[in-house]
Amino acid sequence: MRFRLTPRETSFYDMFSASADNIVTGSKLLMELLGADSASRVEIAERMRAAEHAGDDATHAIFHQLNSSFITPFDREDIYNLASSLDDIMDFMEEAVDLVVLYQVEELPKGVAQQIEVLARAAELTAEAMPGLRTMDNLTEYWIEVNRLENQADQIHRKLLAHLFNGKYDAMEVLKLKQIVDVLEEAADAFEHVANTVETIAVKES
């Protein structure tokens, strides 16, 4: 790691970890959604909304700290990109749950469970990686694995789309389900954006 003569604001590390931990909470709520009945889904959506608001608060705290800090642990643009991408993940997960409730989807295609499992694993890896920003050690495996998971998510998404357009669903149901699986795919993309930002930071700091 580069040797620095100036002190740095270290609270960013804790805030990034808190944001990532909140994403793990969101991924667990997504898992709960699978197989839940209508009443339970409404309650899950309420908890997901609260988690999303907590994520917004965490993001705003990072931005406030960024604007008030003279010296930052790494480039300001990278801090902004990392915080924004973490926030995007929660936004997409909350949107997916909300759509399931609003559209009153009775049964989700089996592939959705695979999408959510990939997101849950990516959430765990991201939460485990955030403390590593302090030293930039042992992060390579993290971004390689998240990129692999995103490729897996792409494959699942394509198979889901093929399933939705095989003629077994009516047109309105296809529109509803496609929007849900597309939003879950966007969450997977956002995890990759986080991993790519961490890689960029690590390369700059090496």
TrEMBL record:
TM stretches of this protein: none
Name of the protein this chain belongs to: DUF47 domain-containing protein
Species for this entry: Streptomyces atratus
Top-level lineage group: Bacteria
Lineage: Bacteria, Bacillati, Actinomycetota, Actinomycetes, Kitasatosporales
SUPFAM superfamilies found in the cross-reference section: PhoU-like
Family membership noted in the UniProt record: Belongs to the UPF0111 family.
